[in-house]
Amino acid sequence: MKIGLIVIATLLAALLLFEGYAVWRASARTPAIIAAHRNRPVNLAQVGSRRLQMLLQVEDPGFYRHHGVDFSTPGQGKTTLTQAMVKRLYFDGGFKPGFAKIEQSLIARFVFDPALAKRDQLEIALNIASFGTIKGKPVIGFEQAAQTFFGAPLTRLSDHHFLMLVAMLKAPNALDPIRHPTENADRVARIEALLGGKCKPRDLDDVDYIACAGIK
């Protein structure tokens, strides 16, 4: 019994040391990461406060309240915008579920969120969001996505087209409006019902808005 407890305690201590080192290493990299994303093709003014609110209500309803992580807001899912940015900016060698999720959450909470104002976080998110791949080439950021999928700059998109891009963020390739128009349209319809106050997420993990299905 004692040996088992010692082994568990040793493993926990090793995990804490490993994650602590990961946070320290991330903290050291953060100034360079922020500097690399200082020039942002898309700024908040170009998107507008109304569309930003639409985006946040879908992707991160508690964005302005949380400190990088959020495990309580219905419809949030297990990844905030801050965590999503951490995944893209800090995990150069790829992201594997498990301990990486713990590391991602710690970096979001104790490194990235304290280092950047929410406004700056949101601007970076707009510019590094992943929209899948087209012919093997990644589509990165809302501006490139607008040009790729609609042949127009982001500022000229209709609200509906903007929501088609927002809908993609959950699963970019599977919700591609060109290759999977039916799936994209279904998610857009659910999002529109959500934004219109016709339905609500059931719990934290209800990112599919089950109660919104079929509402017009």
Task: Summarize the structure in short.
The protein is mainly alpha-helical.
At the fold tier of CATH, the topology name is: Penicillin binding protein transpeptidase fold
Order of the strands making up the biggest sheet: 1-2
* DSSP summary, beta strand count: 2
Coarse morphology = globular
Uncertain segments are: none
Q: Give the number of helices.
A: 9
List keywords for this structure.
216 residues, mainly alpha, Penicillin binding protein transpeptidase fold, two-stranded antiparallel sheet, 2 strands, 56% helix, 4% strand, globular
Structure write-up:
- The protein is mostly helical.
- The chain has a single domain (2-212), classed as Penicillin binding protein transpeptidase fold (Orthogonal Bundle), CATH 1.10.3810.
- It contains nine helices and two strands, in the order ααααααββααα.
- Strands 1-2 form a two-stranded antiparallel sheet.
- Helix 1 crosses helix 5 (99-115), helix 3 (49-59) runs parallel beside helix 8 (159-168) and helix 4 packs across helix 5.
- The longest helix has 35 residues, at 2-36.
- It is globular, with a radius of gyration of 19 Å.
- 31% of the residues are buried.
- The mean pLDDT is 90.
Sequence-ordered SSE layout with sheet pairings:
Elements: H1 2-36, H2 44-47, H3 49-59, H4 81-90, H5 99-115, H6 118-128, E1 130-134, E2 137-140, H7 142-150, H8 159-168, H9 181-195
Antiparallel strand pairs: 1-2
Helix pairs in contact: 1-5, 3-8, 4-5, 4-6, 8-9
